[in-house]
Specification:
The complex is a heterodimer of chains A (about 525) and B (about 190).
Chain A lengths: L2 H10 L17 H23 L1 H4 L3 H24 L8 E3 L4 E3 L1 H28 L4 H19 L3 H19 L6 H32 L4 H10 L7 H17 L8 H8 L2 H26 L4 H24 L4 H21 L3 H29 L14 H4 L1 H15 L5 H15 L3 H26 L25 H19 L2 H17 L2
Antiparallel strand pairs in A: 1-2
Helix pairs in contact in A: 2-4, 2-6, 4-5, 4-6, 5-6, 5-12, 5-15, 5-20, 5-21, 6-7, 6-12, 7-8, 7-12, 8-10, 8-11, 10-12, 10-13, 11-14, 12-14, 12-15, 13-14, 13-19, 14-15, 14-18, 14-19, 15-17, 15-18, 15-20, 15-21, 17-19, 17-20, 18-19, 18-20
Chain B lengths: L1 H21 L3 H21 L3 H26 L15 H23 L2 H4 L15 H10 L3 H22 L9 H8 L1
The chains are: A mainly alpha (about 525), B mainly alpha (about 190).
């Protein structure tokens, strides 16, 4: 029917009044959405309160941010008991037209994200004051980004997952560029934004193709459709869609070959923001990756597993080998975070509940240690983050032994030394690989850990075993340089102490966290219809 | 009737496209792009896709062309380029080849498909759109039922974007020099 004819037909008929049309909206389990709401809504309140009541709130932004994230985490923990207790509790469920999952897995990631925000806020407090940038917007953006991460971890719909990814990413693009007087920071934000937008486009295209192949964006429906008919549309459309999704995720978690942004962005962005990027953004990225590939596309595992294994190998080796060549500590940590993403990808690639549990354990442990590591980097780098070379750490063990000791514990944890959380994190993924029969992949992971050890030990050697001033250098002019002591704001010290203690506690009693991660995992594999 | 609408709209689309290439003034070219986009919007309405038509006008004819104009104004309207210079060697022949290629490929696709597209079964059952309902209504219904969470999260996304834009657009205080300037002064 042509346009005019249809218009004429409509005019001829009596029009039903619009007000009488009732749409039945889906039921909303507000209790399930509470951690998300408790992150996003107070972030808005914080923004408004800081501009309306500037005098009252000045200086308390970090406190407010820690309080907000802590409250959200507390409610998430309450939820945990209800969701994981299958006998007395409610068990995992979906809500809002089955677009949002509340299960042990999403709750676990929520807590990890809240902890990442708390650590970054504590580090950011001293940093922003030192740089003269103090304001509420940094904290508000951190909280909003974490709310995006919670959406990603809980999404049961590809559209919601994509929106979560954007809510997660856009604040981080802005935060990376938030040091307005440092052009390196601006450059970092710009690079991250351009490449991130590019990756988002890939992700979106992947969603479109998967929708085209399966006729739904709901993960549960997709899984069901694929179970009924695994060769849907010849499979090509679905596989192309999955490949594009993998590119999008690969960018977010900094997997080789989608890692090119990482060193520049880590180097240029403010260190507290980098701490959040390495802990929070990575956790949210892997949360989505595991839910889409290990759960939804579980039936297609033979198709995507070789690709993810390849990514894992490239990421493991590329990250640790390139880290060795760095002299700037932030760049070095960037490559080391790439190599850690490789370990996490091993956990994803084996596609087993053990692998997913190992990923969760790794994310929690790594989030804590990298948070503490960047706390130290923030402090040592000094005003304007000028001192990020290895030289800045030279002789730190003699000048400030406690700081150096804490840093050493965190570096050992990243190396994977026993009695730190990092050992059990690496052990978990390697064990999952061996259990899945991927012996050579486990061997590659161990090789990468050995190469990576050189990177961290070089920093330890610089701190404890190298004289900071060479008396024979510079014509006996010894007066030249005893570097000023590293300033340690109270909040930053607290963050460092807490992360070091947590790293050691998990290292001595890994059962605490393995049990939690183990509880979180079977739920995710069972929840989707 | 439909054919007449198609002819007029098609003429506007093609005319606008030729205008984009033919006008020497970039502002005129951008405005003629608006004509093309409006023509496409009319074609969407003729296909009963009112929502797409509205989006076409709001997003493309509205936002994107305004963005183009911003860039043109920013770079200076009266700055003219020497068209004989090719920044990339051989880009014009390659562009011609690519254009002809795309045209040929789409012609082949359309002609070979013929009427068979209509007989292809639609796989999805979830989105079977009731034909008597305008697509704007059914989209609205979906947005407030199946995708209500996505709608709400879009609200967060837009807020985040606005906050981010404000944070980035803020200028540092005039008395605070850049960190790099400090370092250069020391060196």
């Amino acid at each position: 029917m042509s346009l005019l004819a249809s218009l004429a037909a409509q005019a001829a008929q009596p029009v039903t009044p619009v007000t009488s049309v009732l749409v039945e909206t889906p039921s909303v389990d507000w209790w399930g959405l509470l951690p998300l709401i408790l992150l996003a809504a107070p972030a808005m309140v914080l923004l408004h309160a800081s501009s309306l009541l500037r005098r009252v709130f000045r200086g308390f932004y970090a406190t407010a941010s820690v309080g907000i994230a802590g409250t959200a985490a507390a409610f998430a923990i309450v939820q945990w008991f209800r969701v994981t207790d299958l006998d007395g509790g409610r068990g995992p469920y979906t809500t809002v037209a089955s677009a949002y999952t509340v299960d042990g897995y999403s709750v676990f990631i929520t807590v990890v994200l809240c902890v990442a925000v708390i650590v970054s806020s504590l580090v950011a407090d001293g940093y922003l004051r030192r740089e003269g940038l103090d304001g509420a917007e940094t904290y508000a953006l951190l909280l909003l980004s974490a709310s995006g991460g919670v959406v990603m971890a809980s999404a049961n719909d590809l559209i919601v997952l994509f929106l979560g990814l954007e809510v997660l990413s856009i604040p981080v693009y802005v935060l990376a560029a938030s040091h307005l007087r440092r052009s390196a920071s601006q450059e970092a934000g710009f690079k991250y934004f351009i490449l991130g937008a590019f990756a988002s486009a890939f992700f979106l295209y992947g969603i479109a193709l998967v929708y085209g192949a399966t006729g739904s964006t709901n993960l549960g429906t997709i899984r069901q459709t694929l179970q009924d008919d695994p060769f849907v549309d010849g499979g090509a459309l679905l596989l192309a869609g999955a490949a594009f999704l993998l590119v999008g995720f690969g960018f977010k978690v900094a997997a080789v070959p989608f890692h090119a942004w990482t060193p520049d962005v880590y180097q240029g962005a403010p260190s507290p923001v980098v701490s959040y990027m390495a802990s929070g953004v990575k956790a949210a990225g892997f949360a989505g990756l595991v839910r889409v590939f290990d759960v939804t596309l579980a039936g297609q595992v033979r198709d995507w597993q070789p690709i993810v294994v390849g990514l894992a190998v490239l990421t493991l080796l590329g990250g640790s080998v390139l880290a060795v060549a760095q002299t700037d500590v932030k760049r070095m940590l960037a490559y080391s975070s790439i190599s850690h993403a490789g370990f996490l990808l091993v956990g994803v690639a084996v596609a087993s509940p053990e692998g997913a549990a190992a990923v969760l354990f790794y994310l929690a442990a790594y989030g804590l240690m990298i948070g503490g590591t960047f706390a130290v980097v923030t402090a040592v780098a000094g005003p304007g983050e000028q001192a990020t070379g290895i030289d800045a750490f030279r002789g730190l063990g003699r000048r400030q032994p406690m700081l150096a000791l804490g840093f050493t514990v965190l570096l050992f944890a990243q190396t994977g030394v026993p009695l730190t959380s990092g050992f059990f994190a690496k052990f978990g993924v390697i064990k999952a690989a061996v259990d899945g029969g991927w012996y050579w992949l486990a061997a590659v992971a161990m090789l990468s850990a050995v190469v990576g050890a050189f990177v961290y030990l070089r920093l330890v050697v610089a701190m404890f075993m190298v004289e900071d001033i060479d008396p024979h250098h510079g014509d006996g002019d010894v007066v030249a340089a005893t570097p000023a002591p590293v300033a340690m704001p109270a909040a930053l010290t607290l963050a460092l102490a807490a992360t070091v203690v947590a790293t050691l506690v998990v290292g001595f009693l890994p059962g605490l966290l393995t049990d939690l991660a183990g509880d979180a995992v079977p739920v995710v594999l069972a929840t989707l219809p | 009737m439909e054919f007449v609408v198609f002819l007029i709209a098609g003429a506007i689309v093609v005319g606008g496209a030729i205008g984009v290439l033919a006008f020497a003034n970039p502002v005129h070219a951008a405005l003629s792009l608006v004509a093309t986009l409006f023509g496409v919007a009319v074609l969407f309405v003729a296909q009963n896709a009112q929502f797409l038509a509205a989006v076409q006008v709001i997003v493309y004819a509205g936002a994107i062309v305004v963005l183009f104009l911003f860039v043109i104004m920013l770079l200076g309207v009266d700055r003219s380029d020497d068209l004989r210079v090719e920044p990339i060697v051989g880009q014009r022949p390659l562009a011609l080849l690519a254009g002809v290629g795309v045209l040929a490929a789409s012609l082949v696709a359309v002609l070979s498909a013929g009427g068979s597209t209509a007989t292809r079964t639609v796989r999805s059952t979830a989105v079977a759109i009731p034909t008597e309902e305008p697509d704007v209504t059914s989209l609205g219904r979906l947005l407030f039922t199946d995708h209500v969470l996505a709608l709400e999260i879009t609200a967060i996304l837009l807020t985040v974007a606005v906050v981010g834009a404000v944070v980035l657009a803020r200028r540092p205080g005039r008395d605070e020099p850049s960190v790099e300037a400090d370092v250069e002064a020391e060196a």
